[in-house]
Amino acid sequence: MNENAAILPPMVGWILLALFSALWIGLGIYWGRRNKNFEDHALAGRNIGLALGSATAAATWITSNTTMLAPQFALQLGIWGMLAYSTASFGLLLFAPMAGRIRALMPHGYTSGDFFRLRYGRPAWAIFMLFTLFYSLTWLVSMAMAGGILLNALSGIPYAWGMTVILTVCVLYTMRGGLAAVIGTDFIQSLIIIVGIVIVGFAVLSNVSIGEIHANLEADRPALLDVLFPAAIMAIFNNLLFGLGEVFHNNVWWSRAFAFREGLGGKAFALGGLIWFPIPIAAGFIALASGALDVSVPAADMVGPLVVANVLGEVGAIAIFIIVFCSLASSIDSLLAATSDLLTEDVYRRVFRPAATPARLKAVAQYVTLGLGVFTWAVCLPRIGTLASVLFFAGPLVGSMIWPIVTGLYWRNANSVGAVGGMLLGAGVGLVCYFAIGWYVASLIATAVSMIWVLACARLSKTRFDWAQLGESG
């Protein structure tokens, strides 16, 4: 999109970008003063309370993908697509009891990799690390892409420049402040996002009624109202399982389970899920109004920003800029921190430097964060596909890890044969279906195949795991 087609002048976009960049970096420097060692940097002293815990769970899950992909889902799959994205809230809701279980079994744990290594052994751990790192980098790429797309669509700032600045800002304050800075900024960002979404929703309804939206869809795109739209129905179950897999395996959520004050993890994740649930529905509704508002949509993943800007003009463009910038930062920082901790704890410490001091581990985590930022920037520079195609390619890998984690936390007879086979078979079959059928069935099929293998191996197993072994993670 060129400068003439953009709604905000480039100068306004740069000013907004500079203001919020300075704010987040300043907060990161302030909160980073408290970090004395790796545990402070990675887990904020394991003392996060309920208010900050709920806010960070919700804000981290309100990604730029939520505010941009949810409208894209609605535009392509209709009402079921809009609801499909909201099912990802079940990932947080069902992880709530698991968070308490994780903290009880692993009081000194750091990462999800710690769990896989102690529970299933190094072969399963190696496969898990490969899968989770691929997913984490895919998530990072999709969000960095969203930042560049947003700035280009709203202000005409070139995609490469916008993506570079946003990614650089997140890397800088995450390096300096660690998880404490991530959670602190998440609290502020969650408030901005929720208030912004409410204001935008009322603004759209003040310009077009639900009846007008329905009439337009019935006349021009009746498939979007079809309750038996096959692809949309499959997308509901696929996205539900994708959301479960995303939360259950990713160190973003495990690090919070270890960081929340003892006994608060379950409550924080449950509240975070309830807060998050209506957000994608509201964002998706905006996309369904595009036809009635006569908004031209050159690309499906830009429909949200374009509709809001059309309704509110320059004020709307500024509002959606702030909302998506906050949702982007709240997720990129979390993922940078959690992934750097995973590489520092599971690879650097456990494989190469078992005797590394806490201060050295903190320094390594900061360097790894910088490296992740540079890698993501290099991949994002040539824009690749749409947000959905980038993110959902990892769906089969994510789905294949659900059952090894669930059974590993609760069943003594879950074993490494089941975990290894479940991940490899589930991911393999799911990827074949991704290319042969479509993204909207890949996670569903991968999860089903993995479940059958894992449960069969557990049923036939004669071994019984000793839960005390998980306490060795410190």
Describe the structure.
This protein is 79% helix and 0% strand. The mean pLDDT is 83. The chain contains 20 helices and no strands. The chain is mainly alpha-helical and 474 residues long. It has helices at residues 10-32, 38-43, 50-61, 64-86, 89-105, 112-120, 122-155, 159-207, 210-220, 230-249, 251-259, 265-276, 278-288, 303-352, 358-380, 387-392, 395-400, 402-410, 416-436, 439-460. The chain is globular.
Features:
single chain; about 475 residues; mainly alpha
Fraction in helix: over 70%
Q: Low-confidence runs (pLDDT<50, min 5 residues)? A: none
Q: Provide the β-strand percentage band.
A: under 5%
Strands, total number: 0
The radius of gyration computed from the alpha-carbon positions, rounded to a whole number of angstroms, is 22 Å
- Series of H and E elements: HHHHHHHHHHHHHHHHHHHH
- The geometry reads as globular
Largest sheet: none
Structure summary:
The chain is mostly helical.
Chain-wise SSE layout:
Layout: H1 10-32, H2 38-43, H3 50-61, H4 64-86, H5 89-105, H6 112-120, H7 122-155, H8 159-207, H9 210-220, H10 230-249, H11 251-259, H12 265-276, H13 278-288, H14 303-352, H15 358-380, H16 387-392, H17 395-400, H18 402-410, H19 416-436, H20 439-460
Helix pairs in contact: 1-8, 3-8, 3-12, 3-14, 4-10, 4-13, 4-14, 5-10, 5-11, 5-12, 6-7, 7-8, 7-14, 7-15, 7-19, 8-13, 8-14, 8-15, 10-20, 11-14, 13-14, 14-15, 18-20, 19-20
